[in-house]
Structures are given as C-alpha cells and as structure tokens.
Amino acid sequence: MIKKTIALTLAALVGLSVLSGCKNDEEDNGSGTSGKKGVTISVVTSFGGDDGNRQNYEKAYQAFEKATGNKVSDNSQTSNETWKSQVMADFQTGAEPDVLFYFNGVDSNKLIQDKKVVSIDEIREVYPDYADNMKDDWMGASPVDGKNYSVPVNGFWELLFVNKKVLSDCGVDIPGADYTWEQFLKDCETIKQKGYTPIAASLFEVPHYWFEYTVFNHGNPENHLEVPSSATDAIGKKWQAGMEDIKTLFSKGFFPSNTLTAKDADTFQLFADGKAAFAIDGSWKLGWFTGTDNQAGNVDNIDDFTICFVPGSGERKATDIIGGISMGYYITRKAWDDPNKQKACVDFVEAMTTDEVVSAFGVTNVTALKNGTIVPDDVDSMTKRAIDLMQELTATVPAVQDQLTETARKALFADIQNVVSGKMTAQQAIASALDKNK
Amino acid sequence: MDNDSMIFKKKGPLLVFLLPALAFMALFLYYPFIMNIVNSFYQITGLGNSPEQLNQPWYANYQRLFEDPYMATALKNTLILMITTIVFQVGIALILALLIDNIKKGVQFFRTVYFFPIVISATALGLLFNLIFLYDTGMVNQIIQSIKPGSELIDWYDENHFLFTMLLPVMWQYVGFYFVIIATGLNNISPEIYEAARVDGTSGFQRVWYITLPLLRNVLCTCLTLAITGALKVFDLPWVMFGAGMPLNKSWLTGTYMYDITFGYADVDYGSAIAIVIVVLGVVISMLANRIFRERDI
C-alpha cells in the first residue's frame, strides 16, 4: 500500500512537472511574439574559433540578450569548407538555425533555390524599417534572382601591402593611385637586384590574390565577374592572360624561391622581417599587423608598413579594387514561419547590424552602411591609410573565384603551381576547372 | 559440477557482454563501410549530401582510379613508405635493441629516450619538423649556413628532397615503438644460451647471427606485420608537413589523397572509391605479411 502511494505521488509529480514545463514554454513563446523576453533563437555564424571578430560578436549578442530578454543559442564556428558543408547538411536534415550568418555568393544558391531563407523584401512587408541603415545595392544580392536575402556586417578589400623600409633601401617610391603594371615590373627588378624578394606569396597555398588581380588587369570592373564558358572564349583568354602574368612573375624570380613549397605564413613572415617588399592580402590581415585586444601585432613598428593599390593595367585603374560584401545575416524560412520567433529574429539581425556594431567589426572595411563606418580618433597609421584608400576607390568588384563551385575553385588554384612551373598550360588548367564547375 | 564449468554451459551471460560491442562495431564500422561501397557508385557532391544519381557508368570511379596520375603517385609513395618502414624502422630498432642489450648501465634511460617520440602527437611532430626544415630560418639550413657561409639555402620540400623530408620524421617517430618490442624479446632469451656460446668461443657477431636473430624470429615477424600495415595508415605527419601533395603533387599518399579528394574537393564518391582501395590493399597486404612472416614454434 505504501509502495502504491509513493508510486502515485511520484507519477503525479512527474505529470505536474511536465505540465509546468508546457506552461513555461507557452509563456516564453507568448512573450517571444512581442520580442520582449523569453524566446531562445538558434544562431550559426562564422565568428567562432579564432575569428578576429569573435569578441565583438559575443559582445554584440550579449547586449541584444540584455536589451530584449531573448536568449541566443550560439553555435558559431570558424569558416572553412567543412563548416560550409555542415551548414548545408543542417538545412537538408531540417536542423537549420533560426538565424544564419553565411556567404551571399554561389555558396548560398541552394538555400535560395530551395526557399530555405527569407528575402529582405518579404521581411520589409511586415517590418518596413528592417535594415534601413544599409544601402540596398550593396547588401550582396543573390546570384540566383538578384534579390537581397542577407544583411551584411563587414565587407572586405584586397590590396597591396608594402614594406616601406625595403622600398626605401631600394630607392623605389611608395606606389600611388596611378601605379601601373609596367612600373611594378621595373620596381620588382630593382628590388630583386638589391637582394630582396620582390613579392611575398605562396603560390602553393594562396595564389588566389594574384589570380584575381592579374585577371582583373586584362578586363574591367564590368566583366570581371564573368566566368568563361570555355577555356578559349573571350573570358577564358582573359583568364589565360592573367595566369600567364603570374608565370612571368615566377620566371623572373620575383616570388620567393620556395614559393611552390612554402606556406602563406612563411612567405608573409619574409615580408614582416624586411626581406620582401610587396604582398597582396585582405582587410582581415590588418589585425595581424595591429594586433587585437588580447594579442600584440606581429611587427615591431607598424609605421614601417603601409597599404597601396595593386598596380593597374589596360582598362583597369589601380583604384579599381577587389572587394565587397560576401556574407550577411539570413533569417531562415523555418524561423520566419514560427510566429513565436519571427520578431526575435528580426530584432537580433537589426541589433547585430547597427552602425556601431558594424564599425566595431571593421572600420576600414567596404561597408553597406548608408552613413559609413564610425572611425575612432586614435587609429594607427595602417588603418588610417586603409580608410584613406577607401575614399579614392573608383570601383569595387567581388572576387570572381566566388562565382566558381568549391571543387572548381580548388582545382583551378591547385593547378596554378603546375602552370607557372610549365607542367600544364593555363588553357588546360582553366578547362579542367570549368569541367568541375557544375 | 563446479561453478567454472557452469560458466561455459550458460551462454546467455556471455552474449549479454558480447552483443553491445558487436552492435557498436556493426553501427560504427560495418554499416559505414557497406555504405561507403554503395556511395562509391553514386554521385555525391558534398559532405553530408545525399547521393544524387548513379555514376555513368556505375563503375566510373573505379575506372578513374586507373587513369588518375595522382592515385598512381599515391600508391607508389605508399609502397616506398612501406619498404622504408621495414628497412629503417624495424632495422634501426633492431640494431639499437642489440646494442643496448650489450650494455650494463643506462638501459632504462635509452629505452625511455627512444620511446619518447611515440607519445608526442603527430601534429606536434609535424610542426616541429616543419621548423627544422624551414627554408629561411630552419634549423638544418642554419647549421649548413654556419658550416658553409654563403651557400645556397636548400628547399627541403622541393622535388629533389621531399621524399627524404617526408619519410625521415615518420621513420624517426616509430623506431622507438619497434625498439621496445624487440628489446622485450631480447630480454626473454635466456642468458645461459649466450654463456654456453661464449664458453664455446663464439664472437659477438656469431652470437647475434646464430642465437639472437633465430630466437627473435617471432618478435621480428610481429614487428614486420605491424610496420607494413602501419605504413598504409600513415596520414597525419605527412599531411601536417606537406598538405595537398606538395611539391607539385609529388608527395601524395593514399591516405592524404583520399582526404583531399573527399574534404578538399567535396568529391565524396571518388573519395569513397579510394577508401575502398586502401581497405583492400590493407587486407591483402596484411594477409600476405601474415603468411610470409608466420610465427613458428622455436
């Protein structure tokens, strides 16, 4: 009898706890509709791991949690091919997050085609002020239908990093906005004769910066994003000419002698150690020089380095650069259709893309903000130079490599070492990559 | 009837303990392996993606294996690795064990020193050897520069040196492993046999040749089988040091090539076909090694 009583009591307690759980859920969800408290939204971004903006991201979403009472279930990781595959697999298995920070180029085509994410236009039908601090033309429209789906944070640029001490020792001027490819070749020869390595680059690991600009030098901002249909059509020939330029730089000995076996970190160290003069890299590299809150910069004196435009040729002016906005916050269809989560997701994206938050993520970056980024007073010389260069731009074009599939892109860049070493022609490398671009 | 024999009569409890392990193996080894075979016939263009359609023809990936020059390179390098493993890993381990067997002091010290590389992770070792062989400021090039100032720096990763640079750390890491096995085998040989041989006036070399090696046969067979099968699985150290086939696609091993095809190119179906080649190669070579180096009663 006692056993029965205990069993019944326990069963009643379990039942009550389940019901009370339901009640809490309802309360949470109910209040979530108003976006004031209690809703937990799942978020996936690339600001995890050792991302330079991880602290900024965490600070921003914690401020959102405090202000709204909502909770963020964060599953951020570092962006790489495995992460991309995992994101796609989550969508396929119905385990997608409520908000996703992801690429807006071809990488997200499947999300758009399968209607897994909601367009900005659709969101604005309900929330007319959504992302109204951004320029619509700069938000990174989908290649599928030309519509905006994501709200960007920070864009990127790729420019020429210059070691001023090396140039000074060689009697070479710091490149200006009218820097030409011919002058660049002459400067490289002078630098080489003086015993320095003209260009710090690993053609084994990161040939893509030079590919982008050498191809760009044989075209213009209007046609840079065109992908060849075949290796021998007009665009294919443009790509061939670009790759031949890299081969010329290689055969003239302008790259480090171990460029085909060195890692990016090794060659960039040559640049930092004052053994190389030039290196092309992206806006994310600034932090490597300047350091972050937790880490010192990697150079003794940041004033020994500066940033310049990559030499231009033909129809491309030096001030036409590779850059743009490649990632942004998406609200998934699943979260949008959930009345309990819809407003919380909208509030979250708005909180993460205010002028202040975007500026904290990168003051020098290409930005979609209508008012531009907010620049602090105490910036270092490199950051200031990058901000100044942004004022001189004549065109900003995204990287054409992002128009290729992951497989084609990897094949193309893996073959650049074969092209420069004469084991393959540029035409064969392009044909092989296009064959994989499906 | 005593309790011991009861244990063997009642099979039920035995099954209770065996089944979970069997289920675990079936779920995490045999099922994925069978799915891997199936996947190799389909088109799969991303990790986590479902198979899209059957390849045309269905055996296209296996046809490609024979036409792929990098696969041939990977097989050739794996074979070289296997041979050098036998010669250098087991060979050096044997020599070291024989030398240490003949000293009276410091045996434990040498055992620890030689075994130490085994406990360091391959990734850490890869980074260590990357620093040793670094082009500009690496240890080896610095030593060469100090001996011969003004000489050209050597690119230890180029086409002329990559095989040495790749194989050396792998050999170095596992010598200690075989050294400990052989040293234990040497300990099991009775000192009285050596004593009797010494009384008969044999030289040190004769004792090794006529007593030690024949009595170590079974231990050496085990080492050789382990070395051959181990060589097929080498992945982490070469991957950390050479990445994707550096230089100019010359350094592929079957393991590194499969990884790059699957994770780098997202060509999951072809990666599955390469994985099957690795498994088949492993099974066949293990069987051959077991047959050739079969243990015998001494």
Please describe what this structure looks like:
By secondary structure, chain A is of the alpha/beta class. In chain A, strands 5, 6, 7, 8, 9 and 11 form a 6-stranded mixed sheet that branches. In chain A, strands 2-1-3-10-4 form a 5-stranded mixed sheet. Chain A has helices at about 1-35, 55-70, 80-90, 110-115, 120-125, 165-170, 180-195, 210-215, 235-250, 265-270, 285-290, 335, 340-350, 355-360, 380-390, 405-420, 425-435, and strands spanning about 40-45, 70-75, 100-105, 150, 155-165, 195-200, 275-280, 305-310, 320-325, 325-330, 395. The termini of chain A are far apart. Chain A contains 17 helices and 11 strands. In chain A, strand 1 (about 40-45), helix 2 and strand 2 (about 70-75) form a beta-alpha-beta unit. Chain A folds into 2 domains: about 40-155 and about 325-360, D-Maltodextrin-Binding Protein, domain 2 (3-Layer(aba) Sandwich), CATH 3.40.190.10; about 155-325 and about 385-435, Periplasmic binding protein-like II (D-Maltodextrin-Binding Protein, domain 2), CATH 3.40.190. With about 300 residues, chain B is mainly alpha-helical. Chain B has one domain: MetI-like fold (Orthogonal Bundle), CATH 1.10.3720. Helix content of chain B is about 70%, strand content about 0%. In chain B, helix 4 (about 70-100) packs antiparallel against helix 11. The interface of A and B includes residues 82, 261 and 275 of A.
